[in-house]
Design goal:
single chain, about 80 residues, alpha+beta, two-stranded antiparallel ribbon, 2 helices, about 30% helix, elongated
Length: about 80
């Protein structure tokens, strides 16, 4: 598959590729240069379509935080 570099240095990602990686307008990419190749890596972010999509989003984060706090407390309670 081919694409062209514009005068302004822009490259269009063909539709088939955008669909394959579920890329949408406004998505961000990390760019990496490996030798003479360019690698674009999509930066995935949670995108809510409606407010209900946010329900439960922080549950995993809270669980991890509480586990870390518990581990810190257990380390403090140990006497050498």
């Amino acid at each position: 598959m081919k694409t062209l570099l514009s005068e302004r240095g822009q490259v269009v990602i063909p539709k088939k590729i955008r669909e394959a990686i579920h890329a949408e307008k406004g998505d961000e990419f990390e760019i990496e240069v490996i030798g003479e190749s360019i690698v674009l890596k999509p930066i995935k972010r949670f995108k809510a379509k409606k407010w209900q999509d946010y329900i439960g989003i922080g549950e995993g984060i809270v669980d991890v935080y509480l586990k870390e706090k518990q581990e810190e407390k257990e380390k403090e309670d140990v006497y050498p």
